[in-house]
Amino acid sequence: MTEIQITDRLIHLRNDRISYIMGIMEPGILTHLYFGKRLESFRPESILRRYGLKDEELRLKKGILNNVPLEYPSWGLGDMREGSLIARAADGGASCDLRFRDAEAADGKYRLDGLPSAYGENAKTLRVRLYDEKLRMRVTLLYAVFEDCDVITRSAVIENQGSEAIELERAASLCLELPDDRYDLITLSGAWARERAVYRRRICPGEMSVSSLRGASSHITSPFAALARPETSESQGEVYGAALVYSGSFYMGAQVDSNGAVRLQGGLNDRHFSWKLDAGETFTVPEGVLVYSDCGLDGMSAQFHTLCANHIVRGKWAKAPRPILLNNWEATYFAFDEEKLLSIAKKAAETGIELFVLDDGWFGHRDDDHSSLGDWFVYEKKLPDGIRHLSDRIHEMGLKFGLWFEPEMISPDSDLFRKHPDWAMQFQGREHVEGRNQLILDLSNPEVCEHVYQMMAGHLREDGIDYIKWDMNRNFTNPGSMRLPPDRMKEFPHRYMLGLYSILSRLTEAFPEVLFESCSGGGGRFDLGMLSFMPQTWCSDNTDAISRCRIQWGTSYVFPPFSMGAHVSAVPNHQTGRITPINTRINVAMSGCFGFELDLNRLTEEEIAQVRAAVVRIKEVREILLYGEFHRLSSPYEGHDTAWITVSKDHKRAILMLTRDLAQPNANAPMIRLRGLDAQKTYRVLETGEVYRGDELMNSGITPELPKGDAASVSLTLAAEE
Ligand code: DGJ
Questions:
Q1: Which of the following is catalytic: 471, 527, 544, 661?
Q2: Regarding the domain with residue range 3-312, which homologous superfamily does it belong to in the CATH classification?
Q3: Is the pLDDT of residue 497 over 70?
Q4: How far is ligand 1, taken at its centre, from the CA of residue 196, in Å?
Q5: In 173, 359, 499, 636, which residue has its Cα 20 to 30 A from 587's Cα atom?
Q6: Can you tell me which atom of ligand 1 is nearest the CA of 359?
Q7: What is the pLDDT of residue 406?
Q8: What are the domain boundaries of the chain?
Q9: Given this model, what pLDDT does residue 615 score?
Q10: Which atom of ligand 1 is nearest to 597's Cα?
Q11: Residue closest to 600 by CA, chosen among 344, 332, 325, 336
């Protein structure tokens, strides 16, 4: 059950497992006192003593705020740490004195204007209103607590109730104060084709952070951070996880102060950011989420996964079996015509695949990546009868039809650019800087957003499209607009995101049947913001099974299998040159939204037989693979073996995957301790006929037999005996 208790001194949010507690101290300072395992009652004295505070009166004038755990710290009044809010008055003064006004609880989950946020009936919302007298600025802190996951979501609405403009120079989403610094900071960082690798280091005095200034959450680092006790492992120990429901430039970091207390913060990246709040205007801060688990990193991920399943991903596809797809990108790149596509699709249909996706190159005069983005009309040289004709042929084969777009982009060589050069993102008078030979549209301009919406809606209405791959292949340069006045130019990166979200929200509402997959040169924008509109994200352009073990392992810290696009591609792999057996590629891709990225006509009969068998098996078990409970078992970051298991919600079936990157001569076979099973149940391994009790599998383990050779893999199905 969720509850919010508000008394004169304390505000306590809780569900059956976690508590989140704030204090209201004289003279109206909102403190953060506790986040962790559920508490039945709470006395603030101890925690205040821990911070060296003798009574509940904060003597602001003596600068004592520097040692106070604050709920939404601002700047300039004695707290010397990095704060969450910097608001500059018209006279240039930037200190901010937020005092508690009132708080109220309500049923249901708050919504945010223009921004994605978690949803859910089984939630409760808390609104805490703070006020700065001088600025005449009201800050409403928003919180939600859920019945089914150990997550607190946060946001804030900042309102200028005065008559002069206020300049917001920082407005963070998250702030979590912890009384000691015995934590490791875990982040997910990497690069194109190496997304979301796991990094873990001990925090120490000063600041450790990850951020993006790219206008996208980025390949380089995810809008995620966790603080885990040094002894916390996958299966046990305390951990706090934080993530943003946001897809643009962000900041996420932990500061350790001189007394060994920690402040974890996250939100909009405030470099090159400010927002002018005119009299009467409001600014809504992107949503942040905080997770607590005392069941290790696996426990933290379980909370994030439940959040994604029940409160982030929405619509028809949220809980539906995702179609097994074949995408032509690595099969043909730009070199295709209708005949070629139909031959690939025909083989896909014969093999049991359900969706054919036509990737880049079908529009304008696009033979390579130098032109045509923005000219979303069919390239007649390749497809003389048009897209509708192709989609009809595909549908006749019993397949669904999907199409690739990169709607946020504009090529300098395009009719669109020739007609509307002012629609490209730019600073006036500054030469364009291209990335992948393309520019980005100015989505801070409502006219451009309207154009993109109408273009997409037109295709969706007319072309028989069941699935959209929404790509975004470069980051911001000259992040500005011809339309914004100079004193608002720093608003551009966030205004762009608001424009993008408005298009996505209209499209997904108008076309609820369509399955959208988000992509950004692979996993360059894999975040909770995009997942709020598009239920799956192309995890990485790196389709090599061994690389994917690391990428999918890291991705699973926050994101569940049903959100990760994962495909079987050709060998030698186009990104790494590695040759892996087809069953390895299948086993690894199976732990996500399964598909193919190759021309099946080029496989041997034996390989086709394996593909056919895999498709049959995946259709049988995809409910479990996508929506079961996912547990990481053996880490590719610690050895040669990657193992994970997905267990059905009723714990009656499970799929175990083990992949070894390099063969180990004269070495013991891997012993994998499973998780998530019912200790009392007896399970049969369908592939071998062996029978084990759940407690044996979880405490002693299982030693699956791997084939010989590098990149060997096995996937086992466990079924509980009646
Ligand atoms: C980048 C994507 O990640 C690829 O899958 C493919 O769609 C290309 N873009 C097409 O240009």
A1: 471
A2: alpha-galactosidase from lactobacil brevis (2.70.98.60)
A3: yes
A4: 18
A5: 359
A6: 7
A7: 98
A8: 3-312, 641-720
A9: 98
A10: 5
A11: 344
pLDDT digits (tens, 9 = 90+) for 115-160: 999 999 899 999 999 999 999 999 999 999 999 999 999 999 999 9
Of 473, 543, 548, 596, the residue with max ligand 1 atoms within 8 A of its CB, to mutate for a pocket test, comes to 473
Residue 283 CB–ligand 1 contact under 6 Å: no
What are the b/e assignments for 554-564, b being 16+ CB within 10 Å? bbbbbbbbbbb
Tokens of 409: 């982009």
521 lines ligand 1 (CB under 6 A): yes
User: What's the rounded mean pLDDT across residues 72-88?
Assistant: 94
- Among 257, 359, 442, 541, the active-site one is 541
Look at 121 and 531; give whichever has higher pLDDT.
Answer: 531
* Each residue's pLDDT tens digit, 631-662: 999 999 999 999 999 999 999 999 999 999 99
Residue nearest to ligand 1 atom 10, measured at CA = 360
| Confidence at residue 268, expressed as pLDDT on a 0 to 100 scale | 98
329 CB near ligand 1 (under 6 Å): yes
Please give the average per-residue pLDDT across 297-326, as a whole number.
98
Which is the closest atom of ligand 1 to the Cα of 522? 3
Residue 330: CB within 6 Å of ligand 1?
no
Q: How far is the CA of 518 from the centre of ligand 1 (A)?
A: 11
Distance, in Å, from the CA atom of 633 to the CA atom of 235, rounded to the nearest integer, reads 9
- 650 flagged as catalytic: no
3-class SS of residue 563: helix
Instruction: Quickly tell me which residue has 């079936």 as its tokens.
Output: 653
CA of 365 to the centre of ligand 1 (A): 17
Instruction: Return the beta strands (E) in 246-324 as ranges.
Output: 250-256, 262-268, 275-277, 282-284, 287-293
Q: Quick one: pLDDT at residue 62? A: 57
Pocket test for ligand 1, best of 327, 359, 544 (most atoms within 8 A of CB): 359
Pick the CATH number of 641-720 from 1.10.3730.10, 2.60.40.1180, 2.60.110.10, 3.30.70.1400: 2.60.40.1180
527 among known catalytic residues: no
Distance CA(452)–CA(460), nearest Å, equals 12
Go through the chain and tell me how many residues it has.
722
Q: Packing angle between helix 545-555 and helix 582-589, nearest 10 degrees?
A: 10
Mean pLDDT of the chain: 96
- The number of helices, as runs of H, and strands, as runs of E, in the chain is 13, 36
Reading the block at residue 314, the tokens are 């929405």
Tell me, in angstroms, the distance from the centre of ligand 1 to residue 473's CA. 7
Task: Read off the pLDDT of residues 11-53 as tens digits, 9 standing for 90 and up.
Answer: 999 999 999 999 998 889 999 999 999 999 998 888 888 877 7
Q: For ligand 1, atom 11, which residue shows the shortest CA distance? A: 360
Overall average pLDDT of the 99-123 stretch:
97
Task: Quote the pTM value.
Answer: 0.98
Mean pLDDT calculated for residue range 557-575: 98
Contact 217, 250 (CB under 8 A): yes
